[in-house]
Amino acid sequence: MAQKVLVEMIDDLDGSEAGQTVPFGLDGVQYEIDLSDENAAALRDELATFIAAARRTGGRKTTVRATAAPTAEERERSKAIRTWALDNNWAIAERGRIPREVIAAYEESQKPEAKPRKRTAKKRAGK
Predict the structure, then answer these.
(1) The whole model's pTM is what?
(2) What per-residue confidence (pLDDT) applies to 122?
């Protein structure tokens, strides 16, 4: 047998159908109230003067980007850089972000050395 549950939101002030749940806080206590769209607008209008004069201390400012976990290749590269840095007298922590100058020095040390080319004698024509 199947059941169907219907949830009806009722305005907490006047008993009409609620259109939204409005969260707010006062004196360190957070509240939620279910209100019709008209009553929610009235609440916002009443608080607008106080909000305009207030300092914002929290709430939705910006979203924090989640960073992806490093891949196996990135972990191996970091391990190689740390080993190289310790062998070359760089002060570096066992964990955390590797300073840019250490990475740059590591990359520079890994560049293949340019081998001097052998000069071949050019043949001169006609003499």
Answers:
(1) 0.43
(2) 67
